[in-house]
Amino acid sequence: MKMTTSLLLAGISTLATLGASQMTHAEGLMSADTLSVGMEVSYPPFESYKDGKIVGFDPEISALLAAKMGAKPQFNDTKFTSLILGLGSNKFDAVISGMYVTPERVKIADAIPYAKTGASIMVLKGAEVQPKTEQDLCGMKVGLQQGTTWVKALNDLSADYCLPNGKESITVQEFPSAPEVSQALLSRNVQAQMEIAGAAKMFAERTKGRIEISSPDLVYPQTLGMYVKKDNAALKASLESALSAIKADGSYMALIEKYELTPVND
Q1: Contact between residue 256 and residue 262 where contact means Cβ atoms under 8 Å apart
Q2: What's the rounded Cα separation, in Å, for the pair 82 and 85?
Q3: For labeling, which of 57, 155, 209, 214 is most exposed (least CB within 10 Å)?
């Protein structure tokens, strides 16, 4: 009887240990049972509204991370340019919104790499000019969403490559959201649009062929990052642990493949 009881207790202990290894602690959250995430919900396939619900890669990975932390995800629809500011003023715990890791951003917030992607160039179907690379944008009017890293990248390209090589400069026009850039392209107010590849593909599909992707390869490939406040090391550690856990159980890779992204390795 003693041996049976001991074996039973040992089995329970082992199961408890295994269960605990699959769950991280929700350290650093403003509310112990909620992972509050800032994102701009107008950026498919990363985040968008469908039938009144927020869907896409970022809400799905947020839900997976929250589950590992013993919390529920809460999404806060916020303008892209206000996300890092909102993080600093405690409007949410983290920003997970298809945002690249850049030196400027990591000066004011900590980043956790969670996927890799790049941009695609879009033009009107049958457009006379079909830019294949960023260098082909010289002399063109390009629409971009406000706050994206490509604003500086294209302005630098214009000054450092286009003009020195006797080409016309790139005219960058910014818009509040990515769908508004697409609308400007459809209205011929810009000649090209540059967006993260996954978003570009979906925008093109939604226009039923009126917009097409002209670049065969990714432009400006970069790493996407989740952002947390600089002074919240506990939450950063919790998210990193949760990310490792979803990599271990296979749910991370399934999501990466679903949205045609590239994984990041530990």
Answers
A1: yes
A2: 5
A3: 209
